[in-house]
Design brief:
The complex is a heterodimer of chains A (96) and B (504). Chain A is mostly helical and 96 residues long. Chain A contains 3 helices and no strands. The N and C termini of chain A lie far apart (53 Å). The chains are: A mainly alpha (96), B alpha+beta (504).
């Protein structure tokens, strides 16, 4: 236990994190899967399977990471940033 | 930072753990039993005692299919093995629609067994919960993610993980439940990590289909073909002959033996015949799933005249990885010892969930016991933790008691499962939880002890006859039921005694 007692996170904050972990994590994973499936080299089957296996790992990572920051906004940034990156990559990929 | 993380995690774990806990308790318990799916299926079809593995099985199965499914578009033959000594045939009629039958491997005669889903009921419930639509599967997938997060964050933040492993303080109320929960959680930790991640992998095409959707433009069937290596254009060695006579059972038997020769010791598990009635039938022989860890099964395809036209020896690195993950979850490869370890690990997971759920309630109980009123969570705990085993025992007992030829017998067995569970829920709602635990513990014990009894009245069958004839599979299921029944009654008696002491 920490020597200086910190303010315990409230219920609302925890609910917020759970939503970010499950909903946000799913969004990151889905976008990652869809984007990586067309960006990865090799036959379609290898790309698709690699993409969804990596997506699962990302899901777990994001779901863990959103519990780390003190502020809820930072937690959502952890979700939205990769979403934006994958959307952008997917958009650029589909143009090329 | 770390303490904020610890606190948020601890809070998320402790009060958001309730709902996933109920869900995962059911998934773990039915999943653990699914390791013995074939054994439970055998127990639930006691008539099939004569069946045995036979090298002539493919020959007999094809002969049978030529009689009853001559104009079918597809035949599928699942060959018998040591754990499941019956041949299962399935054929797709001209107008679609599948029909299936169980055959005696030695004769090819249809086996007349009672209509039952056998162990498959628990297998499907394990990932589907028999819930409408796919809601059960979705909930389970999210619960699996929550579990992975809980396990990994637990490893990161739990400073006393090693010490806790050796800590058990019995008869201390809340503290004992906490210690039990920690021990059950830590003992099989690698198993929990493996099983929840690989469980997600098995449901990918439903829960995370976006890679497949994108790469295959929504054509899931094309993905399935590629995954099994069937989408890759076969090397056509010769031009197709004009037409050959309809497939003979000798040809199928011959190609099965050739396939097993080419695999050097691998055994054939499944035979698929496309267009058996036409002059250009193909026979695909799949290796048995218990011959290796990976579920990316090798196969060989032959023309009707016995020429090898295509083969699959395993996919690329990603497909192989997925095959291993999938195979690890199903554990078809495991021998008796490893299977038992998997089963024990699954039961420990079940215990981890149960102790966590009880701890949740005990921790929140007001200090003043006299004023404590039972909460909905406490009642639900009884209905889930005791109710589900009651439902399973009722399913097994119904399998013995429902008449052989009852129309819709399979559905009645499922109804027995759910009706018993509803009864447990009603009981938990109307009694105080302390009484309902004892009541339901006794019912569970009696149901488990009753399930082996009806078969004792069938001549040449039942526990003692099975031990006598060396049918250890069915005898073991019976003995496991008796042990579970005695355990449930024993625990209930202890609980009752301690309650009377506490009140005196």
């Amino acid at each position: 236990m920490a020597l200086v007692k910190q303010a315990a996170p409230g219920r609302k904050a925890v609910l917020n994190r759970i939503a970010a972990a499950l909903g946000g994590g799913y969004a990151v994973a889905a976008l990652a899967a869809s984007t990586l499936a067309v960006m990865l080299p090799g036959p379609a089957i290898e790309a698709a399977v690699t993409a969804h296996l990596l997506a699962y790992l990302l899901f777990v990572l994001v779901a863990l990471a959103v519990f780390v920051p003190r502020r809820g906004a930072t937690a959502w940034a952890i979700v939205l940033l990769p979403c934006a990156v994958f959307l952008l990559a997917g958009w650029l990929g589909s143009r090329g | 930072m770390k303490d904020g993380f610890r606190q948020t995690m601890a809070l998320a774990h402790s009060w958001a753990g309730l709902f996933p806990g109920w869900l995962l308790y059911a998934v773990f318990l039915t999943g653990s039993l699914t390791y013995y799916r074939q054994e439970i299926s055998q127990w639930m079809r006691p008539e099939l005692s004569g069946a045995a593995v036979d090298p002539q099985a493919p020959l007999h199965a094809v002969e049978r299919l030529r009689q009853i499914g001559a104009d079918a578009r597809l035949w599928r033959i699942d060959l018998p093995d040591a754990r499941n000594p019956v041949t299962e045939i399935l054929w797709k009629g001209k107008e679609g629609g599948f029909r299936s039958d169980l055959l005696d491997p030695r004769t090819g005669e249809a086996l007349r067994a009672r209509q039952t889903m056998g162990g498959d009921f628990l297998f499907y419930f394990h990932f589907d919960l028999n819930a409408p639509g796919r809601i059960g599967r979705w909930l389970i997938c999210f619960a699996a993610i929550a579990m992975l997060v809980a396990i990994i964050s637990g490893i990161i933040t739990h400073r006393r993980i090693f010490a806790d492993f050796f800590t058990f303080r019995p008869r201390k109320g809340q503290r004992s439940w906490l210690d039990a929960h920690n021990v059950a959680g830590v003992v099989a930790l690698p198993f929990y990590l493996m099983i929840s991640f690989t469980g997600l992998v098995t449901l990918t095409s439903m829960f995370m289909p976006w890679a497949i959707q994108r790469a295959y433009h929504g054509d899931m069937a094309a993905y399935a073909r590629d995954l099994a290596g069937r989408g890759i254009a076969p090397v056509v060695l010769h031009a197709r002959p004009m037409a050959s006579p309809p497939l003979s059972s000798e040809t199928v038997d011959h190609v099965v033996k050739r396939a097993e020769g080419l695999w050097r010791g691998g055994r054939a598990g499944r035979i698929l015949v496309d267009d058996p009635a036409s002059g250009h039938a193909t026979v695909t022989v799949e290796r048995r799933d218990s011959d290796g860890i990976s579920y990316d099964l090798p196969w060989l395809r032959f023309e009707g005249d016995g020429r090898l036209v295509a083969r699959h020896d395993g996919g690329g690195p990603a497909v192989t990885t997925q095959g291993w993950l999938y195979g690890l979850h199903l554990a078809r490869f495991s021998g008796a010892g490893l299977r038992f370890l998997f089963f024990l690990s699954g039961l420990l997971g079940t215990a981890m969930m149960a102790t966590g759920l009880i701890l949740w309630v005990v921790k929140r109980r007001p200090k003043d016991v006299a004023r404590a009123r039972p909460t909905a969570a406490e009642r639900t705990n009884v209905a889930v933790i005791a109710g589900l085993p009651i439902a399973i025992a009722s399913l097994l007992l119904a399998n013995r008691l429902l008449p052989f030829g009852l129309p819709g017998r399979m559905a009645w067995e499922a109804s027995a499962f759910f009706l018993a569970w509803i009864a447990a829920l009603v009981n938990a709602l109307w009694m105080t939880p302390a009484r309902a635990w004892i009541w339901q513990g006794r019912w569970l014990g009696l149901l488990c002890l009753a399930a082996p009894v009806p078969q004792l009245f069938v001549p040449g069958s039942g526990l003692f006859a099975w031990i006598g004839s060396g049918d250890m599979v069915r005898a073991s299921v019976d003995m496991a039921l008796v042990a579970t029944g005695l355990l449930a009654l024993g625990i209930t008696t202890l609980m009752k005694a301690r309650r009377s002491v506490a009140r005196a």
